[in-house]
Amino acid sequence: MKSYKYVLLDLDNTLYDTRRTERLAMQELICHYAGDRNEPELYELYRRINAGKWQLLETGDISIAKINLQRFHDFFLEAEIKGDWQEAAAFYIDLLAKHHKFLPGAEEIYRYLTEKYQVALITNGLKEAQIKRIKGTFMDYDLTQLFAGEDLGIHKPAPEVISIIRQKMNWQPGGAMILIGDSLQSDVKCAMNAEIDSIWCNFLQEEQGDYQPVYTVTSLHQIKDIL
Which numeric CATH code is attached to 6-17+102-225? Predict the structure, then answer.
């Protein structure tokens, strides 16, 4: 099996249980702003709007700085919620930290990888939200530097993301690198574009389509069988 030196590790829905965290955060937010209205229906509306914004980010048609405000502007407008959507956008970031959950095995695999490899965290997500969720957990800034797309000025799946991180981390060009993430569109495609290997965390048993991850796992502990 190939010997790797550097690991790029995604956060949302790879280490973080983002789906559960988002659900809990939106339950509280909807209750706060919409009272006893149909929460499941409103949550599905938010999910649709939110997914659309992140797709636009990956194609370069929206900036990360605009996502949080625009998704809540559109959500409040379509849901006909009376309230301050800008305030709601800031409130939501705090709620993500309050309700933050990790996926099973996240701490174990994080410690395992950081003991064996040079590891960098890589995310398209909002940096403010990521930092608030990392703070006070087992994750250690001294071991793993966080690279957010909003700081890099470019987002996965653009291959330049990989070259910028390699340069900033002073990782040698000849050192084998692998990217671990859950998203075919952003993580696996980014690795393919940059011509590095990838581990696809297929926790939802999805079809891979035309994407070509080098490895696929269905749980975090299976990463130990590869690295």
Answer: 3.40.50.1000
Phi-psi region of 125 (alpha: psi -120 to 50; beta: other; left: phi over 0): beta
Rounded Cα distance, 93 and 97, in Å: 7
Q: Is the pTM of this model over 0.85?
A: yes
Angle ∠(3,199,60) on CA atoms, nearest 5? 120
Q: Does domain 18-98 have CATH number 1.10.150.240?
A: yes
Domain ranges of the chain: 6-17+102-225, 18-98
Beta carbons within 8 Å of 116's beta carbon, 6+ residues apart: 227
Are 6-17+102-225 and 18-98 in the same CATH fold? no
Cα angle at 43 between 102 and 20, to 5 degrees? 10
pLDDT of residue 67: 85
DSSP 175: S
Residue 93 near residue 128 (C-beta atoms within 8 A): yes
